[in-house]
Amino acid sequence: MKLKMLALAAAGLLAAGSAMAESRLDTVKERGKLMCSGHNGSYLGFAEVDDQGKWKGLDIDLCRGLAASLFGQADGNLEIVPISWAQRWPALQSGDVDVIIKLSGWSQSRDTELNLAFSRPYFVASFHVMVNTDLGAESVADLDGGSICVSAGTSTERFLAAYIEKLGIEAELIVFESGDEVRSAYFNGRCDGLTLLAPPLAAARAKSADPSAHVILPDVIALEPEGIIVPEGDPKWLDVQNWMVSSLWFAELHGITQANVDEIRANPPSAQIGKFLGVTPGYGERLGLSDDWAYNLIKEVGNYAEIFDRNVGEPYGLPRAMNNLYTNGGVFVPLMVD
């Protein structure tokens, strides 16, 4: 019996070792390229294509930062894979993408039924409805008998349906597959209202022919924490996501930017900063990364404030609000570097 128990224990250890070796982190490193989620249109501020056909946005910068953390730089080591909202989970589970960084909310059904694991939230978003000013609507309740455009396969659709039910009004939800389609439908008069998260909603209004012709109603339909998503049961890969997000906040907290990271690395003001930037060993080895991975991250995309300002703050006028560090009244707290 004792020998049998030892054999079972050994088998368990071998199985655990095999599971660890099969981490998506190891797969990506062996491949030499990160497959990261994009969008099947333009999700303004987060995943959009510029005039030169290049991807940009807050989510895209996180993809670039992750590739740089893994390989030293993003160029040549990152492929953005265009997928719809509904394709996110099958694409991750099939291995078509390695990670979902696509403004995706953490919900119980996704956590418990789809075998997904979520990082710490990197963005906290509110949902609103935008309408044409001529309607004279002051709240969503005024859209009783009207119609609202919404993206298919998203938590936005569920939140809106629940909010309409709570108000006790009748409003038709008209769903579209891509962000481009849902915005075009609204601006072409197909729907009375448009529902999106606050950042892309503000961006859609800012880029419209006449921003003053549209008003974002004050109703906060829901708040949603947005996380980076990896397959469940892969703690190594999830650790990398959590520490990347925390490192962006840590760099902001300590004034480390894309412009000054080389100078600070050459003359670190403390042993903690030196370890963070890879001057002394330890910050990468525990994660299966090089010790200078956080330096490469900041060198590639900057700190969190720089990513936010570049993609949604400056172009679309979105305030940081709760997406600030705790020192500025927000909810983000970097983890300890030790």
- How many runs of DSSP E, i.e. beta strands? 12
Structural class: alpha/beta
Count of DSSP-assigned helices: 13
Task: Give the H and E element order.
Answer: HHEEEHEHEHEEEHEHEHEEHHHHH
Shape: globular
Structure write-up:
The protein has 338 residues and is an alpha/beta fold. It has a domain at 125-223: D-Maltodextrin-Binding Protein, domain 2 (3-Layer(aba) Sandwich), CATH 3.40.190.10. The chain is built from 13 helices and twelve strands. The chain has helices at 2-21, 24-31, 58-71, 88-94, 108-113, 155-167, 179-187, 198-206, 235-253, 261-266, 271-276, 293-301, 304-316, and strands at 34-37, 48-49, 55-56, 78-81, 100-105, 116-118, 123-132, 147-151, 172-176, 193-197, 214-216, 222-231. The strands form three sheets. Strands 5, 6, 7, 8, 9, 10, 11 and 12 form an eight-stranded mixed sheet that branches. Helix 6 links the parallel strand 8 and strand 9. Helix 3 (58-71) packs across helix 9 and helix 3 (58-71) runs antiparallel to helix 12 (293-301). The longest helix has 20 residues, at 2-21.
Q: Which structural traits does this protein have?
A:
single chain, 338 residues, D-Maltodextrin-Binding Protein, domain 2, eight-stranded mixed beta sheet, 13 helices, globular, disordered N terminus
